[in-house]
Design goal:
This protein has six domains: 100 residues, 3-Layer(aba) Sandwich (MutS, DNA mismatch repair protein, domain I), CATH 3.40.1170; 132 residues, 2-Layer Sandwich (Nucleotidyltransferase, domain 5), CATH 3.30.420; 100 residues, Orthogonal Bundle (MutS, DNA mismatch repair protein, Chain A, domain 3); 206 residues, 3-Layer(aba) Sandwich (Rossmann fold); 45 residues, no CATH class; 37 residues. It is built from 27 helices and 29 strands. The strands form six sheets. A seven-stranded mixed beta sheet has the order 13-23-24-25-21-26-27, with helices on both faces. Strands 3-4-2-1-5-6 form a six-stranded mixed beta sheet, with helices on both faces. Strands 11-10-7-8-9-12 form a six-stranded mixed beta sheet, with helices on both faces.
Length: 863
Amino acid sequence: MKQYYSIKAVHGDAILLFRVGDFYETFGDDAIRASKILGITLTKRANGSASSVELAGFPYHAVDTYLPKLVRAGERVAICEQLEDPKTTKKIVKRGVIELVTPGVSYSDNILCCKENSFLASVYFGKKKTGVSFLDVSTGDFFAADGNNAYIDKLLANLSPKEVIYPKGYEKEFEEAFGTKHYTYRLDPWMFELGAGREKLLAQFGTTSLKGFGIDRMPEAVVAAGAILYYLEFTEHRNTKHISSIARIDEDRYVWIDRFSIRNLELFTANGGQEGCSLCDVLDRTSSPMGARLLRRWISLPLKDIDRINRRAETVGLFIEDASLRETLCEEIDTVGDLERIISRIAVGRVSPREVVQLKNALFAIEKIKNRLETSDKAPLQEMADRLDLCLSVREKIDREIYPDPSNQIQKGGVIAPGVSIELDDLRNIASHGKEILSDIQRRESEATGIPSLKISFNNVFGYYIEVRNTYKDKVPSEWIRKQTLTGAERYITAELKEYEEKILGAESRILVLEQELFAALLAELAQYVGRIQADASVIARMDCLLGFASQAVEHNYCRPDVNDSQTIDIRAGRHPVIETLMKVGEEYIPNDVLLNDSSQQIIVITGPNMSGKSAILRQTALIVLMAQIGCYVPAGEAHIGVVDKIFTRVGASDNISQGESTFMVEMLESASILNNISQRSLVLLDEIGRGTSTYDGISIAWAMVEYIHRHPTARAKTLFATHYHELNEMEELYERVKNYNVAVREVDRKIIFLRKLVRGGTEHSFGIHVAQMAGMPVQITRRADQILKQMEAAHRGKVGDGPQKTGKAVPHVDGGMQLSMFQLDDPVLKQIRDEIKGLDIDSLTPLEALNKLNEIKKIAGI
């Protein structure tokens, strides 16, 4: 326990898995936490002068089952192993932590998601900018960026790190900038120093400058990246040869999509829960985990570079044209597997023999892919073929030295093929023929002694022995040595038997040692090819994504978008990629046209009843633009996309009760973020702004927002504004670039049919009662609601007087302002009620007097 507490003192915030023989044990508070998370038994045992200590453990071979549960529960887990063979020492076995597994640092397939990067992020708050870096230690992907907190927050939302580290003392700054949803860990400030971070990176990459990586003049990013490397040492991950470069995430190269838009557009997670479907789910037609991870990064970071976008789209087009090529490449990529993570595990020496064989199979598949690409005369395909390195020497070495179907654990043997080591082959011969030799000894001794029931057996106490029943013990030769007496038999050993025992038992243990040595030597040689195989993995992943785009386009009749430098978004017969995929067989998605530009139709105000499809039109427009700018074909008849630099959305209502923010506050925070960051090339989607407050407040805010976007001096952001406030239709008459559209419906026999078609012009009908009826609202409620609505409309029409104040709806002034009339005070009844209330002294009014006064007011109102 002294040894345990000394190790635990170093890793106090982690659950310490303490190896004791064949078990991993936890003690004290660790045992209490582990037993709850893992559902294992919590016991107690005496602990010297202390009364008792809690204890919970599990077999060491079950670590792959229990470790992921602890990490997914947000625990940091320190794995403490026995560092020497207990047979070689009479003292307490030497132990030490060999690895600290955290949510952001792991190589285990049981913890990692194959289709997602497992990023560890590092954040550093500098004086001028904030730096951030992202590392997936399982693949070697390493990125860095800097900017203001809003940009860093966007990157954190886009890349979804499993863990974020930052310096101690910046808790308040971190929470204010990035919220509380991230799993975080705070490090000592000395790990976030520019000079030390730069040296750390230079040593890691073996260079004398960071200019080649484009981050030499990004000090905050350098500090953040250096801190990640310190953290890897802190978690006992010192073998990092596979982390060979770092890439800069340049704000000018990628479309800005903030965390609100990621959520609202359901890019990675469906808001409807497990039954829903995200854009990533729909577009993911990849054949390898590498391709799936790259696709998520592409969706997170759409391009603004028109040439790069069109190069991707051109390659997709080539795959669409050649179905045979597409089919062949998909089949071969499927056999490549997760080459990226396999080569990373080889670099750190944590790879299984079967994964090494998978590397060989992947290299065979890459050769077929390269040969198939070389049959094409198309430049993009030739370029891909040229970048593939077959690594023939690696493939041949694995093929020669490893069994085709080896054991999954090198410790169990059965991995190294015959012909690799003469000594290993000789030892295997002895081990495999040992039973035959023992059978020969048994037959010979039985014939020589005349003991027919003589048999040779083995136990752990004195090895191989000859057992003779008491009936024949008089025939036992004098040179045999008696070792044990049983009730009905005697056990003996002979010099010859002991000699063969040493050979056989020694061979088995020596075989295991020799196989491990040969496997380690093979891994050391394979590690020299890490960079070349990582480059292959990168090419395969990109090809996999583009093949997926092609398959999706063929299956769902997508078109190639024209991505250009204009200020126009012109989508003809556009469809929502997710909704279209989820529709029942036989149903057909109703396509719609959307035209936005900065000259005549900058803002489209869309009205229409609830459930008519306003939100779907908004979302599909953003998704089509995003898909176009990742190089994908799009669900439309025709699409001309003037490249967009920012996509903003404010869709749906949600509370943030845990932070004391109401639906309306969340809506206003998100809307403020949009209005403060719009640019000339922004695409803005606003859905039902203002519905979280009173009707007239909501109309006023919505009107003012549209007005602000239209009047912005530098940024004519293209905007789709869906609303149920029909008063906003008045804006078309006041602002030249505001146009009214509505989602058409048809009323048949007092029932409405949603046509899902966007048509020119506004509408003044909301059909809310019809929607309530469709939702299953009790008939008496909808019937009564209809009566109340008719009474209110009749009363409203009857009280409309002369002049703009008496129209009963929003009326614009000549300066574009807005005047709202809530009720008409020139009504004599309302005047009398007002006078009655005005004369009241509320402070001196008794409850009984208040009731009497209320009764008088009812009589005046005729109620």
